[in-house]
Write a structure and sequence with these properties.
The chain is of the alpha/beta class. The protein contains 16 helices and 12 strands. The strands form 4 sheets. The protein has a 4-stranded mixed beta sheet, with helices on both faces. A 3-stranded antiparallel beta sheet has the order 6-10-8, with helices on one face. The chain starts with a helix and ends with a strand.
Length: about 425
């Protein structure tokens, strides 16, 4: 069928067949369909929506537009997690080696920072020598021998998604639930997963600010992923405050290593990480109950086995062999490391988490242009949490900056976006809801 006829059918609210969708995506991939037609197609979907069956067909067509990985003879289930992005979200760094320590395999294909959220690949780029774009052979070898590898998207993984997203980004169709679902899952399913868990952030630091929107996206992803053959659950988690103690690339790597060592653990980060890991261990039948999964995961941490997996992954992908012994022998440090205190004592009652994430960009720890070189050393450590009491001895955070000017800008931003009250606020649970 002519591409304009497929566009017209969707424009008029009709249901497209699997063959029509696959034909259109094939045209996007080989270039026979021009950008204007792709833009019209995505706008028609944005305005008229898709059924679950159509979204599944779109997802699989985009998955099959490039390479699809296969993990044969590994001896265990292939698991992964995807996060919708947050501020201070370093959970992937701990989750992959924890799962590997429990007998699973985790080939995690991650992304770079997007807007106010940090990117997992940017964190690993702060480790000298670590290859976030290894050869396929090294990727396979690391997953097989270590049990986990965290890398970036390969050149021919869901190429149709790359083309379609670039057009959506400039044509006002980014927010479509159906298109978001297909975009996320086409890449994840191309990684050859058996089981997937979605960490969907909800709150003032998340892309999905409202619970209703987050729940709608979670339901769409879970429905389509399961229909496409990958057993998937979603966990809605709170992003109304910075997650963990540190924000910024090298600082978050250091916190992750501490977590794996059992040092200075943030309880919200711990609860979310164990819950997401448990979802995958239960789904893959590596554990029979939530209690068994939690116990097994905690043993992986306490025994040091998860830390060993992280160290082996770093070494296999080109990083220092003794990185985990003392990460600060290798991670970059900012010349200015200084605490910031609140103007008045009191309890942290609220924070504008998105704006705090944006302030990292002012420290050059995030991008304003795609090709921008990041400063991996900058950010915040010892970040306050809602409910904490702060005064002239307990800081809001310790700022890591390159210049006095950058320190002053960051200090003003934090004072503007962290709110202090006289009474202890009501604390929200880190885990909001599970969708299966």
């Amino acid at each position: 069928m002519l591409p304009q006829e497929i566009i017209r059918q969707k424009r008029d609210g009709k249901t497209l067949t699997t063959e029509q969708i696959r034909e259109f995506i094939q045209g996007v991939t080989d270039g026979s369909i021009v950008d204007a037609q792709t833009a019209a197609f995505t706008m028609a979907i944005f305005l008229k929506g898709m059924s679950a069956e159509e979204t599944s067909a779109l997802t699989l067509a985009m998955r099959d537009s490039g390479d699809v990985m296969h993990w044969d003879n590994l001896g265990g289930p292939v698991l992964d997690k995807h996060s919708s992005g947050g501020v201070g979200d370093k959970i992937s760094l701990m989750l992959a080696p924890m799962l590997a320590a429990c007998g699973a395999y985790c080939p995690m294909i991650s992304g770079r920072g997007l807007g106010h959220t940090g990117g997992t690949l940017d964190k690993f780029d702060s480790i000298p020598g670590y290859q976030t774009s290894p050869s396929n052979d090294l990727f396979y070898q690391t997953v097989k021998q270590v049990g986990c590898a965290i890398i970036g998207q390969t050149g021919n993984l869901a190429p149709a998604d790359k083309k379609i997203y670039a057009i959506r980004d400039v044509c006002g169709t980014v927010e479509s639930i159906d298109l978001i679902t297909a975009s996320i899952l086409s890449k994840k399913l191309a990684a050859g997963l058996d089981y997937l868990v979605m960490d969907l952030k909800c709150g003032n630091g998340a892309f999905m600010g409202s619970l209703a929107k987050a729940e709608k996206l979670a339901t769409s992803i879970v429905t389509v992923a399961n229909a496409s053959g990958t057993k998937t659950t979603a966990v809605l988690t709170d992003m109304n405050q910075v997650l963990g103690h540190n924000v910024g690339n090298a600082l978050e790597v250091a916190e992750a290593v501490d977590f794996l060592k059992g040092k200075n653990i943030d309880h919200r980060t711990h609860e979310i990480t164990l819950r997401l890991c448990s979802e995958l261990l239960l789904a893959s039948s590596l554990c029979a109950t939530q209690e068994e999964a939690q116990t097994k995961l905690q043993q992986a941490l306490d025994s040091g086995k998860a830390l060993e997996k992280f160290a082996a992954m770093v070494s296999s992908l080109g990083g220092p062999k003794d990185f985990c012994d003392n990460p600060w022998n290798y991670l970059p440090k900012a010349p200015i490391i200084r605490p910031l205190f609140a103007d008045k004592p009191g309890y942290v009652c609220k924070m504008s988490t998105r704006d705090i994430g944006l302030s990292i960009i002012m420290l050059k720890g995030g991008r304003t242009t795609p090709e921008q070189k990041l400063d991996y050393a900058t950010g915040y450590s010892d970040f306050c949490q809602i409910g904490d009491y702060v005064d002239d001895k307990t800081p809001l955070a310790i700022i890591h900056a390159q210049t006095e000017e950058e320190y002053s800008i960051a200090a003003a931003e934090l004072r503007r976006h962290i709110f202090i009250g006289e009474t202890i606020p009501q604390l929200s649970a880190p885990i909001i809801k599970r969708i299966a």
